[in-house]
Write a structure and sequence with these properties.
The chain is mainly alpha-helical. Helices cover 71% and strands 5% of the residues. The protein contains 19 helices and two strands. The radius of gyration is 26 Å and the shape is globular.
Length: 455
């Protein structure tokens, strides 16, 4: 029989949305913050030449810069104040999270609760600033050394002042985005950092639609190809929605407890294990590692002779590690599987979970508490991670193969981008439903109080 909460959740409608004033204010605040993010993506770094930057970016397409540019909403190609986006924060948070699971001092800090979490967040911000300094200085020096085939330099006035200004501007842009994301999380709807990444990806949709329409009008793309592309996107979205919400629920039994009527009743609950525990981290790590050598070879190949040994190595890298190549696809799939198992082992600790169940008196029916429970949890998690890794490989490699076969340079349509967009959208809609549900509960409580006063 459905519970009261299930009945209310099933009756949620847009009619209730107009009455939820707080929810509307949160949504408007989120939209306004994302508009500010988009405006910042068009503010260039001081001292750069936008014409030369456009030519240089076209020469380095297909590398890791395409991935970062997609996540930043095109800010990297325009070399704006937020060219680094929130990727330094994502990298720093992953490193701190890994260290908190491996280093004894950070493991103890993680167990301290709210105080330990704040301390780890502080370490993450320090790491973000450090990464911004390193990446910002690398970008500044790289821009000074670049010039187009027409002799245009990427920097108007190279030198120490430009490097210092660029590093400070990039640090300020990234930290402002972090602050903006925290404001969205606390005063808006959804996770702020995730929404900023999703907004950067979705911002490429008009360019994608316009390029596709131009190719169709020019006769380069047929109607069958467009229909196949739309069908592939719909199929991938449906698959992601189904698999991301799929869980393996383990029955947890608790000892019998006396109720108010003196009867003994056993409590039951479920331990949900997500099919894809690692999320979008494996595709991001795998693609970053694979595209990094390609990017380095693209920059280094301009100053090397094709007849030299190093020049031949660069040509081979560009030939075998290009998008859609068999070696690239094989290494990409292997990297996804490896990082899927590795990150799952880091974020989920079977020993810690079994110990918490034992302390609370819970146990899995048929499994002894303690070590046997930890072994069983590890066994179940390994089995479902195999399915999750296979799902990630399919989602990430099938669009990659399709784009390479059709020759469409649409990184927006990659599996990683679709994963991020669908996951963030589902989480945001879930939070909106939670706010609507809380609003309906509030109305019910008010009506009950009024009826009580009338009696």
């Amino acid at each position: 029989m459905a519970s009261r909460a299930d009945n209310i959740a099933s009756t949620l409608s847009l009619a209730n949305f107009s009455k939820a004033t707080e929810l509307k204010n949160r949504i408007w605040f989120t939209i306004g913050a994302l508009i500010v993010f988009r405006f910042l993506s068009f503010v260039p770094l001081p001292g750069v030449n936008p014409v030369a930057l456009r030519d240089l970016y076209l020469q380095t397409q297909g590398g890791i810069l395409d991935l970062f540019n997609t996540f930043s909403g095109g800010s990297l190609s325009r070399m704006s104040l937020i060219a680094l986006g929130v990727m330094p924060y994502i990298t720093a948070s992953i490193v701190v999270q890994l260290a908190a699971s491996l280093h004894p001092a950070l493991v103890a800090l993680k167990k301290e609760g709210e105080a330990g979490r704040k301390k780890l967040n502080q370490y993450t911000r320090y790491g973000t600033v450090l990464l911004c300094i390193v990446q910002g200085y690398a970008i500044a020096t790289g821009l000074e050394a670049l010039s187009t085939s027409r002799g245009l330099g990427a920097v108007v006035d190279p030198g120490i002042p430009f490097r210092v200004g660029a590093v400070i501007s990039l640090i300020g842009g990234t930290m402002f985005l972090l602050w903006l994301g925290e404001q969205i999380t606390s005063r808006g709807i959804g996770n702020g950092v995730s929404l900023i990444i999703m907004a950067g990806i979705v911002a490429q949709m008009p360019t994608f639609a316009s390029n596709l329409g131009s190719a169709y009008s020019a006769g380069d793309t047929g109607s069958i190809l467009i229909i196949a592309l739309i069908a592939l996107v719909i199929a991938m979205i449906l698959m992601i929605c189904f698999m991301e919400r799929a869980t393996r629920r383990l029955l947890i039994q608790y000892p019998k407890r006396a109720t108010q009527r003196g009867m003994m009743q056993a409590d039951r609950s479920h331990l949900p294990l997500k099919l894809n525990t690692a999320g979008v981290i494996p595709p991001i790590f795998a693609s970053s590692l694979l595209l990094l050598p390609l990017t380095i070879s693209q920059f280094a190949g301009k100053s090397l002779s094709p007849e030299s040994t190093m020049g031949k190595i660069v040509v081979s890298l560009n030939q075998y590690l290009g998008h859609g190549k068999p070696l690239y696809m094989l290494l990409y799939a292997a990297g996804i599987v490896f990082f899927c198992f590795f990150y799952t082992a880091v974020v989920f600790n079977p020993e810690e979970t079994s110990e918490n169940l034992k302390k609370n008196g819970g146990f899995i029916p048929g499994i002894r508490p303690g070590k046997n429970t930890a072994t069983y949890l590890d066994y179940v998690l390994t089995r479902i991670t195999v399915i999750g890794a296979a799902y990630l490989v399919i989602v990430c490699t099938v669009p990659e193969y399709f784009l390479s076969m059709t020759g469409l340079p649409l990184l927006f349509m990659g599996g990683t981008s679709l994963l991020i967009v669908v996951n963030v959208t589902v989480d945001t809609i879930t939070q909106i439903q939670s706010h609507l549900l809380a609003h309906q509960y509030g109305d019910l409580i008010k009506k009950a109080k009024l009826k009580g006063r009338m009696r």
